[in-house]
Structures are given as C-alpha cells and as structure tokens.
Design a protein that fits this description.
10 strands, 12 helices, about 325 residues, 2 domains, Aminoglycoside 3'-phosphotransferase, Chain: A, domain 2, alpha+beta, 5-stranded antiparallel β-sheet, single chain
C-alpha cells in the first residue's frame, strides 16, 4: 500500500521530504508542476527556493492507459538500472538519482529542465547523425554494464509488454478500432493478423523476449525515452529494463529511425557502427515487429503518415521479419 502519493498538497511534500533528509538546509518547496505527460508513471517537478527536482512514482496501472494493470515494482527496476549503468562515460546522459523510497514506490531525481523528447523526429523525418552517434554510444555503455546477480527479472512488466508487442497487434479480434485512428487502417492491418508464417516468427522472437539473457538492456529505447537540448542527449524511463538481448534495444532503435525517415540508411548505419557482437537478422526481426505494433497496435505514435505510407512501412516490416 502506498502511504504517500504525488496528488498531495505542497505542505505534505515539505513534511515528507524533510523526514527523509531529501531537502537542503532552509529549503522550502514553492510549487509543484507537471513536467509533461507520463506514459507509465506519475511524474511531478518540485520547485524550491534553491533548486528544482523530479519525483516519479509508479502506480498499479499504466498512467496513460489506466485500464491496464501494471506492476508497482517497476520503479525499483528503474532505480537499479541507473545504479548498474552509472559510470563516467554515461553519467552526463542520464539523470542523477538523489533518493529512493521503496515502500512508496518513489524516486527522487535530477530535473533535466524544460526539454523535449525526440518524438519530433517523426515530423522532421530525420535524425541528425551526431545525435544518432550519441544514442549508439549510450546504448553501447548500457549493454556493457554488469548488473548485480539479483537485478530484477522484471517478468511481470515484460509479460505485459509482450502482449502489446508480440500478441495483441497480430490478433484478428483484438478490439482495437484502428479506423478511429485513421480511416483504412483496419483493412490495412488484416493481412498481418492472418499471416501464419509471419506470426510464427513473431512468436519465436517473443519467447526470446521472455527468456533470460546475458545483456542489460534499456527495454524501451525509442524517441519517447530520448531527450535532447542543444548538444546534450539524455536517456530516461528504463522501467522496462531487464537482462536480455542487445538486439531488442537495437531493433527498436532501428524501427523508429525507419518510421521517422521512411528510409533504411540509418538502420544500416546503426548496424555498421554498433561495436558489440550481434545477430543482425534478429535486430531486423525486432525492428519489423516494432514497426507493425506501432502502426496497428495500441501504443500509437505521433506519426503523421498517409495510409499509403503506412502500407509501405507495414510491407517493409514484414520483409524485415521474414528475412
């Protein structure tokens, strides 16, 4: 049971943080604001007479889709992820953690300021090579980290994610009203829900996603988890992290560059520059699955594409999966 939640008055914040030693001497909370729309968790910015910082809390549901239950302990995964990857090479690309209160599923962290995530690349239809290089460098550092033996399996959240990536988008009767998103999308989705050979490969990759691996991954390495301002690039929201396979992060990364640019040059660039030992075919399969689930699944993107462009993306995604 959560004893303190982020919907409370400012005076309660002051008392709660003081009791945990999270405030500086003579520090007073002046205001509480919402820094942006949270997908999985509740996030608030606290502004004091000396600084600002972020409080993040998990709830027993997905914040954006509150009808979907989600495990409370995902905030513990995020806390342990940041601890596992902490080194000089990545420190400037992740928020600093100031405190963690396990009983209340609460994380106190650095405020990165009023910066935007990188979902604007879908409208811009491009991603700068210097930014891509930094994102590759960051994910390489993540994959090189050595988490403790008791790093959370995060299996309950993975099972939820598995449904929305590998199962629901490929079901003929999944209840998704795709024509409400874009007229014609429902009919466009049908061949991918009835393609037995395609679904068999998707299921195999899905089983690997649920199986133990040997590489710490971010687990949601896409533009919504990437932040950029001027020359700085940050990676946030690692609650989907687990010890799995590097190809998952890379495949998701490739998928979103393809959806943004409508080209494959960035995918080849990513595959060519990543220094780790990977199965390129598996990366492409993950990329294809991610494209399909983002186009005909529940987790839609701010992706303004014509129905013909989405048809093209879906066809190319199938080719990636089938190899």
């Amino acid at each position: 049971m959560i004893n303190f939640n982020l919907d409370t008055p400012i005076s309660d914040f002051q008392d709660y943080l003081n009791k945990r030693g999270w405030l500086l001497a003579n520090e007073e909370i002046l205001s509480v604001e919402k820094p942006g729309e949270g997908n999985m968790n509740v996030v608030v910015r606290l502004i004091t007479n000396q600084r600002s910082f972020i409080l993040k809390q998990s709830r027993p549901f997905v914040q954006k889709y509150q009808q979907i239950p989600a495990p409370l302990d995902r905030i513990a995964v995020e806390f342990q992820f940041y601890d596992a990857v902490k080194n000089d090479a990545i420190a400037s690309h992740i928020p600093e953690i100031y405190g963690y209160e396990a009983p209340d599923y609460l994380l106190l962290m650095q405020d990165l300021g009023n910066i935007d995530d990188m979902t604007q690349i879908y409208a811009a239809r491009k991603i700068e090579s210097r930014v891509l290089d930094k994102l590759l460098s960051i994910v390489t550092e993540i994959h090189s980290a050595r988490p403790t033996e008791n790093f959370p399996l995060n299996l309950e959240l993975r099972q939820l994610n598995y449904q929305h990536i590998f199962e629901l988008p490929f079901l003929e009767e999944n209840g998704f009203q795709l024509d409400e998103i874009q007229p014609g999308l429902q009919a466009l989705s049908k061949p991918y829900k009835t393609d037995k050979a395609l679904k068999e490969i998707v299921a195999l990759v899905g089983q690997q996603y649920l199986s133990p691996g040997d590489t710490l991954i971010h687990g949601d390495y896409y533009p919504g988890s990437w932040m950029t301002v001027e020359d700085s690039v940050y990676v946030i929201d690692p609650e989907f992290s687990f010890v799995g396979f590097a190809e998952f992060d890379l495949g998701v990364m490739c998928a979103h560059t393809i959806m943004a640019t409508m080209e494959y040059s960035d995918q080849e660039y990513i595959l060519g520059k990543y220094s780790g030992n990977i199965d390129r075919s598996l990366v492409k399969k993950v990329a294809g699955i991610e494209i399909i689930r983002r186009l005909i699944g529940l987790a839609q993107l701010p992706l303004q594409r014509s129905i013909d462009e989405k048809d093209y993306l879906l066809q190319q995604a199938r080719k990636l999966i089938m190899g």
